Automatic annotation (TrEMBL):
This is Alpha/beta hydrolase. InterPro entries: AB_hydrolase_fold. It comes from the Bacteria.
């Protein structure tokens, strides 16, 4: 089922999104990993949303401000502002009378905490502090010196990391960011078998985000689509 190109409005402007699946029923709102990881998982996520559409579940893949094809300067953003944009996507679905479920991959799971979702499905969720650690490693590999505070609060603002211009406010907002997990709010966590952290399910596959080039895994997309569809059916019952 081919996606439909659309857009959404938020307080910072207008961004693009892809629509998948039926015009009725619950909607999955997907969030890709932030910064350098996104291009490695976008093709896979599109395939996953196509697989969900084949199962009768609608999906949205919004461009997060400062990511993908967005023209919003990343240096002007924080995690909160990005989350507020996705809240606007969810709000539009609610106004149309449709329930929403978050689909977060890696650090994309940090962006759904503002929205009033009926549930959250997280694949290999990543804490902001872990992402910050990776960004610091990349920053050091580029020839810089110092600890994370030196990276965040040094002379440069914004800080260039792997071609991204990240403000001090954005980097500091990552340090306390965690995936949404509150009692009474449905959440399902799926991780790789190699990840020792707790999960509702673990799958033995190679991580897409460790590849040097964008990749895909059609079999994994089908497995995860089945998992998401069954979980949503349980939540909707």
């Amino acid at each position: 089922m081919a996606p439909h190109i659309d857009h959404y409005d938020w307080s910072g402007g207008r961004e693009a999104l892809l629509r998948f699946g039926p015009d009725t029923g619950p909607v999955v709102v997907a969030a890709l990993p932030l910064f350098e990881e996104a291009n490695r998982t976008r093709t896979f996520t599109v395939g996953l949303l196509r697989a969900l559409a084949d199962r009768g579940i609608a999906g949205l893949l919004p461009d997060v401000p400062g990511q993908g094809e967005s023209l919003t300067p990343l240096a002007d953003l924080t995690i909160l502002r990005m989350a507020e944009a996705l809240e606007a996507v969810t709000g539009a679905c609610h106004e149309a009378g449709r329930r929403t479920y978050a689909l977060g991959i890696r650090s994309g799971t940090l962006l759904d905490y503002c929205a009033l979702h009926s549930g959250r499905w997280h694949f290999a969720p990543q804490r902001g502090d872990d992402l910050l650690r990776e960004l610091h490693r990349i920053w050091r590999a580029a020839g810089h010196h110092g600890d994370r505070d030196a990276m965040i609060y040094g002379d440069a603002d914004p800080v260039e990391i792997a071609g991204n211009l990240l403000s001090t406010d954005l980097l500091s907002s990552l340090s306390a960011a965690t995936p949404f997990d509150r009692p009474g709010s449905p959440r399902r966590v799926v991780r790789l078998a190699s990840d020792p952290a707790p999960a509702d399910r673990k799958i033995d596959v190679a991580p897409l985000w460790r590849r040097s080039e964008p990749g895909d895994d059609i079999t994994l997309a089908q497995i995860l689509a089945d998992d998401i569809a069954e979980w949503i059916a349980t939540c909707e019952a």
